[in-house]
Amino acid sequence: MTTFTWKVTNLYTQTIGGEDDYVVSANYETTGVDGNYSSSLQNIAQFSTENVGVFIPYADLTEEIVIGWIKETLGENGIISIEACIDGQIGSQKNPPAYPVITELPW
């Protein structure tokens, strides 16, 4: 069974509504590990600046808060898609597909 880990690798900020360091996007990496096999994907999530809720000062942010924003932005189907892709890559490592080989011509 694959265990997934989500990690924030960068944050991008702007000044919005008078608030400095408002996070507008985040780079993240999702890694899956199943025994000795692993795979990961990197992506960026863009956060809406409309309908701004409660502002959290940059210094008070935690990785868990930002991962929550990323997952909310992706939605359930987006999360399932990313994790299924990583699972598929791990499956290919466990059971590598057979590749055709060049065979000498019979004549």
Structure description:
The chain is of the alpha+beta class and 107 residues long. It has one domain (3-94). It has one helix at 63-94, and strands spanning 3-16, 19-34, 37-46. The protein has a three-stranded antiparallel β-sheet with strand order 1-2-3. The longest helix is centred in the last third of the chain and has 32 residues, at 63-94. The radius of gyration is 20 Å and the shape is elongated. The termini are far apart. The mean pLDDT is 92.
Keywords:
107 residues, alpha+beta, three-stranded antiparallel beta sheet, 1 helix
Which outline best applies?
A: elongated
Domain count: 1
- Give helix and strand order, one letter per element, not per position: EEEH
**Arrangement of strands in the largest sheet:** 1-2-3
Q: Which structural class best describes the helix and strand composition?
A: alpha+beta
Distance between termini?
Answer: 49 Å
- Report the strand count: 3
Largest sheet: 3 strands, antiparallel
Question: Level of helix content?
Answer: 25-40%
Q: Helical stretch count? A: 1
Strand content: 35-45%
Radius of gyration (CA) equals 20 Å
Point out poorly predicted stretches.
none
Q: What is the mean pLDDT? A: 92
How are the secondary structure elements laid out?
Elements: E1 3-16, E2 19-34, E3 37-46, H1 63-94
Structure in a nutshell:
The protein is 30% helix and 37% strand. The chain is of the alpha+beta class.
